[in-house]
Write a structure and sequence with these properties.
Helix content: 55-70%
Shape: globular
Distance between the termini: 30 Å
Structural class: alpha+beta
Order of helices and strands: HEEHHEEHHHHHHH
Oligomer: single chain
């Protein structure tokens, strides 16, 4: 187990462990807790709300597992063995990007969102065969577009739980799949952005990638805040969900990137001597927070 995995998802006796073929999967209890908290906004009350919550948790679990499986399988294609860890607010494909060639690492990063898009496409195809008009209506909801069902199947209304399941699956795998491709570190798009910047700017590439990441995350946090306040997106058809979660999500990413930029500045111009790169305190030492002499405390 590497240091990053130990710091983000330390093993507990409540972990759920299993294998998909020969790929180890570990689920930290925080995964279930944070997923359930995110699903508390679901409509209904009593038993109805509980059913919606269980559907939400199940679809988030399958979607993130498929996403991380995409990373691992692409890494396997290039000859590295990885494993999957699901923890609070994220999944990790540990070891899958431990590759020497930049283009291979980029393909591993792309494989996660691509797996989610494929899952969504398969679900949409099946749903379209049964409820074609309602499929378009759900797709419209993802981007704040009202599509009124029409055609011969207009009265073939899907059951409430089926409708909710399809919306959750599309929202997680399409909308958040696109978000994952944004040039924000440590999202998949941020990792590709870093690889690209380092290819063209060398040792200054990491700093440039973090600046881009900070600007994009901060901008989206402001757009999300505007939507929460006004109840409509500033840019038409670019809805970020009209929820405080989106505001906090992008704001925390912006804060994390700002801290990394500060740490990079403190590390000085010779940070990459010896072929290493500056690592955040929790990547160097899982017990970093117990010490009082790290640069992040100044």
């Amino acid at each position: 187990m590497n240091t990053l995995e130990e710091s983000i998802a330390p093993p507990t006796r409540f972990d759920v462990c299993f294998r998909l073929g020969d790929i180890p999967v570990r689920i930290h209890p925080f995964f279930w807790l944070t997923t359930a908290l995110l699903g508390l906004h679901n409509r209904g009350s009593g038993v109805d709300q509980m059913i919606h919550l269980l559907i939400w948790v199940a679809i988030v679990f399958v979607s993130i597992l498929v996403h991380e499986l995409g990373h691992v399988l692409m890494g396997r294609w290039f000859g590295v063995r990885g494993h999957i860890v699901l923890t609070g607010f994220c999944g990790l494909a540990i070891g899958s990007a431990d590759l020497r060639r930049r283009w291979q690492r980029n393909l591993v990063s792309l494989a996660g969102p691509a797996a989610g898009f494929l899952l969504a496409a398969l679900a949409i195809g099946v749903f379209w065969l049964i409820y074609p008009s309602w499929t378009l209506a759900i797709l419209g909801l993802l981007f704040g577009i009202i599509v009124i069902p029409s055609g011969p199947d207009i009265f073939n209304v899907p059951p409430e739980y089926v409708f909710s399941s399809m919306f959750y699956l599309m929202w997680i795998n399409i909308f958040w799949g696109l978000v994952n491709l944004l040039p924000i570190w440590p999202l998949d798009g941020g990792q590709i952005s870093r690889e690209t910047c380092e290819h063209y700017r060398g040792r200054d590439g990491l700093r440039l990638a973090l600046i881009i990441s900070l600007a994009v995350a901060a901008g989206l946090a402001l757009l999300a805040l505007f939507e929460v306040i006004t109840k409509k997106p500033l840019i038409p058809f670019l809805s970020l969900g009209d929820s405080l979660f989106s505001v906090l999500f992008f704001a925390l990413l912006a804060l994390a990137n700002g801290q990394l930029l500060y740490f990079l500045k403190r590390a000085g111009p010779d940070w990459d001597e010896g072929g290493s790169e500056p690592r955040a305190p929790w990547e160097q030492d899982p017990d970093w927070w117990k010490h009082g002499d790290d640069p992040w405390r100044d």
